[in-house]
Specification:
single chain; alpha+beta; Jelly Rolls; 9-stranded mixed β-sheet; 5-stranded mixed β-sheet; 26 strands; binds zinc ion; nucleus; Znf-4CXXC_R1; zinc ion binding
Length: 764
């Protein structure tokens, strides 16, 4: 990471080096001050549609910029004096300190003792600052302003997105996309010293797909990771990287769903950062972001699926936006139509204003969904249900809706009346099945008594609802096998109404038994960490969720997607403890692989705080997920990173040592080493867990090999052994956790409560 090790690069030098670096489009605030609100809105809209990052300089030179309010001292005095989590971007860990103390770090600068890497993000922006911003920002750029569709959501459920950031030199926000496809706006308020405060890197909307491939190649998720990418690495990008420097009064704008990275280079910068849900963000969200979020269980914190209905009810949008929202809404409504002769009974649920989230993928459910009668509080979105996701009550689901269809039709009618002739022409694809129809079929299929079929691909039997039969030869192919061997994407596959002819009948089957001259060669699937349900009760009942590449034994050595692991700490496969082995796991051996992706490439990830903010800052009740209060020390960091690592059996827990966690002294990264004080958890359990896990891995390899040779009976025996071993590991982990919490209770009782709560939530 050259940024962290060396002096910051200069924007001029990078631009001189040429491709892929090109400058941001730059404007002066004088370019827009003479425009009317309407004209400014059009101007900003055009830029956002163009999809390239841009910067508007000089807001601090306006007479409306109130210097007496917009300064660090005032921010400090207006903010709470409680300790807040401050990320050390070098170690990737959070420490707690008071904002006032962080702001006075400039004292260190004066004495030549400069603190670096510290970043306090997502600080509540004081009301007085919000007022000060409103005094000079045109509505089009404002949070909840004329282009921000978040303004249409009821206040209690709109995401909290206007935040203050304070960072010291070399603090950074690695490359990422902001949540739910939003536009990101970043205004530099104060910077210590004369030079530029920050360097901003951006991408454009035309590079979305190449950016995704580029990040995948770095072993990172282009949607959910925050990854510092060095300028040396960036030179290999095959798409434009826009760069600019940012000084006080400069507002940088990154259009919908475009990735960006920011490095702070002056000793101390203070910013206000916010996100706008522009109509182009809405389109990006549904087309591009949501399928990914659903697949990888990344919650949509923007509540985007609720926006179309709320926006249409509210009216008062521009004609163009209204037509677009109507179109989006009609698509949502069409897609949940069931379209069968016997529509299943539908329960209308009054949530009293609470938001319903899918317990599996975290998607905000706007209307129809499936509800587990047994759990009583477990809901699935249609996509998850169709994809074979479930709680343990596979077939006890009933239909529920939040908004009666008749009401939706009224809203559509009144919007049409308002718009009259100005409707978008809609092309409906008649050959596509709706999600509603697919979910109805899935619900029926799940209720069939265990009908098993022998799969042509795995030579194993599966419940009939986990696959599809050929319309010509009636051979059965499981969905998981279709994905692995033939890159079949489940939902589009099922939407297709054409009669399905199997790979065998099409003469390209690549299984071990068919020997066609031109077998299909399946794409390499990136090795990913196991997809985990947001609610620990969620079970993956087959299908395409946990599909790994076919290179057996190729195991990513480094892991965790918690993203806060400092590179120097040897990581291990992040596993969620399970209290029981689900039926599915016993039955589908290949799903057991818990390989994790992201091999560590020595890059620092500085994600977590920002990502959690938006998750944690929700002020309303949720259906089922309990999340700690904003700004809470992430106990998961402690538990996952600092608990004795399996790799070092003699590692002793540092929990008794208060200083490294609670104070921030120079070099604290290094002081977070194991101490020689009595270690809390029993090291014997420790050693045996890692021993058993190694054995488990071996067994899984055997299981795979046996299955590859179709030795089904021996495979079943190995599976049995695997289940036993898993039980033993669970038990030891539970014991270890108990010992850990007891000690934590002694030393830091308040952390113990948090840790217990998290352990409970994670099913430990
Ligand atoms: Zn879902
Ligand atoms: Zn259930
Ligand atoms: Zn066939
Ligand atoms: Zn199969
Ligand atoms: Zn075959």
């Amino acid at each position: 990471m050259d940024f962290l090790q060396q002096a910051p690069p200069s924007v001029q030098d990078l631009l001189r080096a040429g491709e892929p670096f090109i400058p941001f489009s730059e404007y002066s605030v004088q370019d827009i001050t003479h425009l009317s609100e309407d004209e400014t809105t059009k101007w900003v809209e055009a830029k956002l549609r163009d999809g390239k990052p841009f910067v508007i300089r000089g807001f601090s030179r306006l007479k409306e910029w109130d210097r007496s309010v917009l300064n660090n001292e005032r921010l400090g005095s207006l903010s709470s004096s409680a300790a807040i989590p401050v990320r050390n971007c070098h170690t990737g860990r959070d420490a707690k300190m008071r904002l006032q103390d962080l702001l006075s770090q400039t004292e260190y600068a004066r004495t030549g003792n400069v603190r670096e890497f510290l970043y306090a993000k997502d600080l509540q922006c004081p009301q007085e600052w919000i007022k000060a911003l409103d005094a000079f920002l045109p509505s089009a750029m404002r949070h909840l302003g004329s282009l921000d569709l978040f303004r249409t959501l009821p206040k209690e459920i709109a995401p909290e997105v206007l935040m203050a950031y304070v960072g010291t030199r070399k603090s950074s926000s690695g490359f990422h996309r902001c949540f739910s496809g939003t536009v990101a706006l970043n205004l530099l308020v104060e910077s210590e010293g004369a030079g530029p405060g920050s360097i901003c890197f951006g991408t454009d909307k035309h590079s979305q797909a190449v950016y995704d491939t580029y990040m995948e190649r770095l072993g990172k998720s282009p949607h959910t990771d925050w990854t510092d990418v060095s300028t040396t690495q960036l030179k290999s990008a095959n798409f434009p990287i826009y760069i600019t420097h940012q000084q006080p009064g400069d507002l940088v704008i990154f259009p919908s769903a475009t990735a960006h990275q920011i490095w702070n280079i002056s000793p101390m910068v203070t910013k206000v950062v916010w996100n706008v849900m522009h109509s182009s963000s809405l389109v990006s969200f549904f087309d591009y972001i949501q399928p990914f979020y659903q697949r990888y269980c990344h919650a949509d914190t923007g509540r985007v699926p609720l926006i179309p209905l709320h926006a249409l009810i509210r009216g008062s949008l521009g004609t163009e936006d209204e037509a677009l929202l109507l179109d989006v809404f009609l698509k949502l409504l069409d897609d949940e139509a069931i379209e069968t002769d016997s529509v299943p009974p539908m329960k209308t649920v009054d949530t009293q204003g609470a938001v319903v989230e899918c317990n599996f993928c975290g998607l905000t459910i706007w209307n129809r969904h499936l509800h587990c009668e047994q759990c009583g509080d477990f809901d699935l979105c249609l996509t998850c249900f169709i994809s074979g996701r479930s709680c343990k009550h596979v077939a006890d689901y009933t239909w529920a809706e939040l908004i009666p269809r008749a009401y939706c039709m009224e809203v559509i009618q009144s919007t049409r009346n308002r718009l009259r002739g100005r409707l978008l022409s809609r092309i409906k694809n008649p050959k596509q099945k709706s999600l509603g129809a697919l979910a109805a079929a899935a619900a029926d299929a799940r209720k069939q008594p265990m009908m098993e079929r022998l799969c042509h691909l795995c030579r194993d039997s599966h419940p009939a609802w986990k696959g599809v039969a050929c319309t010509q030869c009636s051979a059965f192919f499981c969905f998981r096998g279709l994905h692995r061997h033939f890159d079949v994407d489940l939902i589009p596959f099922l939407r297709n109404t054409d009669p399905w002819v199997c790979p065998k009948c099409s003469h390209f089957c690549n299984c071990r038994c068919c020997h066609f001259p031109l077998p299909y060669s399946s794409k390499d699937k990136p090795v990913r960490s196991r997809i985990k349900s947001i609610d620990p009760r969620g079970r993956i009942m087959g299908f395409t969720d946990n599909v790994f590449d076919q290179k057996r034994g190729k195991r990513a050595s480094m892991a965790t997607h918690s993203a806060s692991l400092p590179p120097e700490v040897p990581s291990r496969v992040h596993k969620r403890a399970r209290t029981q082995v689900s039926d599915e796991e016993a039955e589908l051996p290949r799903q057991q692989e818990d390989y994790s992706t992201f091999p560590n490439r020595g890059m620092i990830q500085s994600q977590s705080t920002e990502d959690t903010i938006h998750t944690n800052a929700r002020p309303y009740v949720m259906s089922s997920r309990s999340i700690g209060p904003k700004g809470q020390l992430r106990i998961s960091d402690l538990v996952e990173e600092h608990s004795p690592a399996e790799a070092e059996p003699s590692f002793q827990a540092p929990f008794r040592h208060a200083t490294p966690l609670l104070s921030l002294t120079p070099g604290d990264g290094a002081s977070r080493r194991p101490t020689n004080e009595p270690s809390v958890p029993a090291t014997t359990d420790e050693a045996s867990i890692s021993f058993l896990e190694r054995k488990l891995e071996e067994l899984r390899r055997y299981a795979d090999e046996l299955l590859d040779l179709s030795l089904v009976d021996s495979h079943a025996k190995v599976q049995e052994k695997i289940s036993q071993l898993q039980g033993q590991i669970e038990e030891r982990k539970r014991r270890k956790a108990e010992a850990l919490f007891d000690s934590l209770d002694r030393d830091f009782p308040e952390l113990a409560t948090v840790a217990r709560e998290e352990a409970r939530r994670r099913g430990l």
